TrEMBL record:
Residues 96-146 form the DUF5651 domain. It comes from the Bacteria. This is DUF5651 domain-containing protein. It comes from Calorimonas adulescens.
Length: 147
């Protein structure tokens, strides 16, 4: 038996621990389960923990430390595939990148003849940089978006 895990195996082990934690938290908060359902879910969580303990017990000591670090930096999300296919996101609707560039180009009409001394303080410049809007001019001392 191997005494190490590759990245994919670690991710699966991590998911096992995240699921164990999720089930434990859910059992504490929910009141919609029957006694039998609660018992079965608790048993499943216990089995996940025992399997994880067995894995950690036979691997190198550093593995458990790495697993704990990874667990602290892991977030699991449930994605609604229907909304994903429709192009919806948590923050709103999907915008085609070309439409975003067209909107930015239209917005740049306000920049014609701009006299700002520090373009990096400009709200439009900051927004365009945040959205990764391509610059109009690569080599310039002033604002790269100025037309």
């Amino acid at each position: 038996m191997k005494t190490y895990m590759n990245r994919i195996d670690r991710e699966h082990h991590l998911m096992m621990l995240v699921t164990w934690d999720y089930l434990g938290n859910w059992l504490e908060k929910t009141s919609c389960l029957t006694t039998e359902e609660r018992k079965r879910i608790k048993t499943a969580a216990t089995h996940l923990l025992h399997a994880s303990d067995s894995i950690v017990g036979r691997l190198e000591v550093d593995y458990a430390k790495k697993l704990m670090r990874d667990a602290k930096n892991t977030e699991v999300r449930i994605v609604d595939r229907v909304n994903e296919k429709l192009g919806r996101t948590e923050g709103g609707r999907y915008i085609d990148i070309e439409d975003l560039y067209d909107l930015a180009s239209f917005s740049l009409k306000e920049c014609v003849g701009c006299n700002k001394t520090n373009h990096k303080e400009c709200e439009r410049y900051k927004l365009f940089m945040k959205l990764n809007i391509p610059v109009a001019q690569e080599q310039t001392d002033g604002c790269p978006y100025e037309n």
